[in-house]
Amino acid sequence: MGKKKLTPNQQLFTHELNRIKRFINKKQKAGYHFNFDLPTMPSRVTQKALRDIKAITPLQLYSNAEVVDQETGEIIKAIEYQAQKRSEASKKGWETRK
Description:
Blueprint: H1 8-29, E1 32-34, H2 47-54, H3 58-63, E2 65-68, E3 75-77, H4 78-97
Antiparallel strand pairs: 1-2, 2-3
Helix pairs in contact: 1-2
């Protein structure tokens, strides 16, 4: 007896769930810690459930994440950390153009 075939909505739901898992795993390797519970697949995947899972963006995930600063050891919100890193990259780029 083989696996049960998924409905198109179930396939889309698993695709979005894998997208979120991929993002979280990638960022955890970079030092982020997420306080986010992954949504579970409901018994019946509706269009509303698909809209809800598609609405989970990286910005929302970053708002639930923290990073431990390597230099100071303090815990920083991920959004602040990103802004800090972006600023440093911008300054470094400006210095190389001088």
